[in-house]
Amino acid sequence: MRRSTLLLSLLLLVVSPAVARAALLGDASIAYSAERTVTVNGRSYTGMVFHVPGRERHEQEIQGIPEVIILDAAAKQAFLIVPMLKSYIAFGFPGVMAELDDPSLRRRPVGRETINGVRTTKYRIDHVSADGSRAEGYAWLSAPGVLMRIDGTITRKNGGKPLSIRMELGNLAVGPQNPALFQVPPGLAKLPAEALQALFGSKPG
Predict the structure, then answer these.
(1) In terms of CATH, what superfamily is 3-200?
(2) What pLDDT is attached to residue 113?
(3) End-to-end CA distance of the chain
(4) How far apart are alpha carbons 5 and 29 in whole angstroms?
(5) Rounded to whole angstroms, how far apart are CA atoms 50 and 149?
(6) Burial 20-55 (b: 16+ CB within 10 A, else e)
(7) Can you name the residues that pair with 77 across neighbouring β-strands?
(8) H-helix or E-strand containing 139?
(9) pLDDT band at 112; cut points 50, 70, 90
(10) What residue segments make up the domains of the chain, in order of their start?
């Protein structure tokens, strides 16, 4: 699996809206923007995240290619936009995401910490999803539900070496966001989900 597809899959697994409802681990009740750094198996990627309740936009550059991921809980879809190709792909979320918003996963607080100036509660996560994927680690959430940091591993159902992932937000700015950020721009060509395999060498999830 190429790095771009690996990152896409992991971003969707740990910070996306759940399929079943808008509540999720990291679906804050407030609107905000922030700088986000994701580290996958020791390799870091930095970009911007924009959030309103139930929707999120991730911007990053991977292997020199700008990419945008829009997450829409109401539509139960994610959209991968590749501006340089003037195209986008719509697809559903991996199964484990539908379970990460379970309130029971946040019944195990292990402490309180301040992350980049934001007070958070630290939670232990150890969850095996219905599809066999296992997420282990810790999550740091603010009182309004902003996922300021997550640090752990994801083991896929087919086994193999666990994938190490860490995400952290910085320069959090609370405030209204432009609704256009969470829409696929007009004029882009829609490609079938199978195009992920042609573009990146594998499908997410």
Answers:
(1) Lipoprotein localisation LolA/LolB/LppX (2.50.20.10)
(2) 97
(3) 12
(4) 29
(5) 15
(6) eeebbbbbbebbbbbebebebeeeebebebbbbbbb
(7) 72
(8) strand 134-141
(9) very high
(10) 3-200
